[in-house]
Amino acid sequence: MKLANKVAVVTGASKGIGAAIAKQLAAEGASVIVNYHTSKEGADKVVSEIVAAGGNTVAIGADVSNEKEIAELFARTKKTYGKVDILVNNAGVYAFGPLEEVTAEKYHREHNLNVLGLLLTTKAALSLFPAEGGSIINISRYRSGSGVVGSGRGVLGGLSRALLSTRKQSPT
To answer: What's the chain's Rg over C-alpha atoms?
Structure first.
């Protein structure tokens, strides 16, 4: 198993792409944190499926747009597994629509989760990476024509490259 002794945190893992990623990482031997915000039932189902297949996993609820909850997510991860080798930033919200439907509240909700949440989650995970480093995977569902608010995830390609550049320049 190529991910034996590795620990992965997958945000937004209670359904869809996040659930599939969590299951695949576990199938490859990683211990997996199944993060969820609102769907504990979905997260428990993913955990049950991973355990039934012989995997090691735990569900941890946290709103990854909330810095205190992010800190608790990684504190619990450290207590459970001691480290993080892989972070999959998958959590996100998408309210596609025209400019006329944009409100400050809708914009900030999406931006705080899709962009700021990714930054804060990445920052928290880095402190638990082993000395040899780890992997960060940022998932984006942006599509052309998705509207003004939905474009928040569209910035992730540039943001991911900027984070990588910043990390490479940091002294270790």
So the answer is: 16
Provide the 10 A C-beta neighbour count for residue 10: 32
Residue 9 near residue 33, CB atoms below 8 Å: yes
When pLDDT is cut at 50, 70 and 90, the band that residue 160 belongs to is: low
The pLDDT-based confidence of 26 (bands split at 50, 70, 90) is very high
Q: What angle (nearest 5°) sits at the alpha carbon of residue 12, between those of residues 139 and 35? A: 130
Residue 14: what are its φ and ψ, rounded to 5°?
Answer: -85, -10
Write the single-letter amino acid at 118: L
Residue 34: CB atoms within 10 Å: 30
Name the residue type at position 129. Answer: F
Q: Please report the sign of the dihedral spanned by the C-alpha atoms of residue 152, residue 24, residue 39, residue 64.
A: negative
Q: Per the structure block, which two tokens stand in for 125?
A: 């995970």
Q: Please tell me the total number of residues recorded for the chain in this structure.
A: 172
Locate the DSSP E strands across 21-167: 31-36, 56-61, 86-89, 135-138
Q: How confident is the model at residue 164 (pLDDT cuts 50, 70, 90)?
A: low
Phi (first) and psi of residue 44, to 5 degrees:
-65, -35
pLDDT-derived band at 100 (thresholds 50, 70, 90) equals: confident
pTM of this structure: 0.85
